[in-house]
Amino acid sequence: MRTVPGIETDVLPSGSGCAECETSAGWWFHLRRCAQCGHIGCCDWSPSQHASEHAREQGHPWIRSYEPGEDWFYNYDDEQLYEGPDLAPPLHHPLEQTTPGPAGRVPSDWQLHLHQ
User: Could you give the domains of the chain?
Assistant: First the structure.
């Protein structure tokens, strides 16, 4: 596959959960990985939408799903889904990690807090 500006295949993910939610005791629905710097953020359905905030603030438009079984890329600039190159592992959060997560911080009425 050709090189895509803004996708760095050798950068490791920043962690196993949303970086900002981890520091603020927040929770997430699904996770997204910045394909340029490896930042892990929560998806736009999550209460805090940290992945898209990171893309806007840092100018990093490419994300990849950080969910098991999903390998799609998304570009915030043109709002399109893409196939892309393999990134450095791990390619998803730990399988034992709950979705939504993390366990213990997700409210019982979590569905009411999602952005749709």
Answer: 1-91 (3.30.40.10)
Chain segment 8-33, per-residue pLDDT in tens? 999 999 999 999 999 999 999 999 99
Please tell me whether the overall predicted TM-score, pTM, comes out greater than 0.90 for this model: yes
Report the distance separating Cα 98 and Cα 95, nearest Å.
8
Q: Is there a contact between 60 and 6 (Cβ–Cβ < 8 Å)?
A: yes
